[in-house]
Amino acid sequence: MKYLSWITVAVLTLMLYMLSGTLVRSEGVIFELPETGLKEGEPAKLVVLLMPHGRDTFAFFDDARYVLDDAAQCAQLGEQLSERAGKTGSKTLLALADRRVEAWVLMKFAAIARTSGLEKILFAQRRQEKPE
User: What angle do CA 70, 74, 75 make, to 5 degrees?
Assistant: First the structure.
């Protein structure tokens, strides 16, 4: 009888340990932002965030989300970029893209930005850490 109580405690402890691992773990989207390339204190007036999600790629600009696979939303994004470029007087756009964004999507976005009147598009790149 004495051993039965110790075995029960051990089994309960093992079950709680196994259960705690599944409760703490949560699924999510890993998003790696690259470095901006701007100097400290230098403001970026026009910034867009490009993020892949499933088969689509989202562009976040001025608190709005645009799907780059939808032609109507691409046109809306171009209009919004043109309007904001006119208000700020800036012709340079900083594009923060996750490394999982495909090259053809970046080229499509660059074409949208060019047709909206922007002259420079900076695609930020994360510097690779050198192993010591």
Answer: 120
